[in-house]
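User: For a teaching handout, I'd like to show students what a predicted protein-ligand complex looks like in token form. I'll give you the sequence and the SMILES for zinc ion. Please answer with just the structure.
Assistant: Understood, here is the input followed by the structure.
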Amino acid sequence: MSVDRLRQLAHRDARPRKIKADAGTCPKCDSHYSADEMQRNLRVCPACGHHFPVTARERMEQLGEPGGYVELWPELRAADPLQFTDLKPYAERIADAEKSTGMGEAIVCAELEVRHQPAVAAVMDFTFMGCSMGAVVGEKFARACDYAAQKGLPLIVVAASGGARMQEGTLALMQMAKTVIALDALAEARVPVVVVLAHPTTGGVWASFASLGDVTYAEPGALIAFSGPRVIEETTREVLPEDFGRAEAQLRNGQVDDVVDRRELAERIGKVLHILRRPEMEGNGSTASPALQWAQGGAQKVKSMVGRIRPGSTDGEDA
Ligand SMILES: [Zn+2]
């Protein structure tokens, strides 16, 4: 039985096709909004809660204050070491993406304040080649980690990606290891990382830095999976649950800490950053917040308990 037939049997995608839809039309409920209304509503449909895509620079303004961020390394551009050509040359694709989006690459890094909490943000933009991760995305992400570690600022990551950039081949895949190592260094520097998973976060980005936040939020309805449901259905010839890989299912599976409406996101991140804030910023000379000291103390306690368990014995001593 074909997957199409199985889909029909499962009564999926039964909505009638819409006509005359444009960028301001909600794909879920057909409500229509002007550009101003969309901006005011943070690109969320007030009628049904559908989350429209957001560009990286608009996201910076939503999280911080309008015009209140300083962009880092906007000058970096992709090289084309493989001289790759598919339907058109890679260099041409990059030039087209830059022309249509006004961005040099698929990630924007910046220093900003979220609800008065200073932070470094690395925000991905799906409009730039599906926000695929090539060498420049990896490099900018790694620089953002280094910068956050040096300055002792928390890192906010907003992920949205189709995965590794196939036009860069193995060089793109290498960015998975590079970004994970950069996050490791950040963890050693005791700098917290808040990750927001926007629609869609898939492939090599989900399989590397996007799944390694200390606190991980997802936007409602976002697809968060290594492979999308269509690929899996075509491979396994089985119909998947309707919410497969969606944020709400990933919350049930324990893959994300919460599903947060975009209109509450800045407030929520601001609160988390406030809780994890380093007291030395307030001048008391300590190097770790009370929450961090408590966590480090707990980890030390577990370590000493594990050290006391004798090989071959299941009994541990009370710490
Ligand atoms: Zn709607």
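For the handout, you might add this sentence: The CA atoms of residues 14 and 48 lie 18 Å apart.
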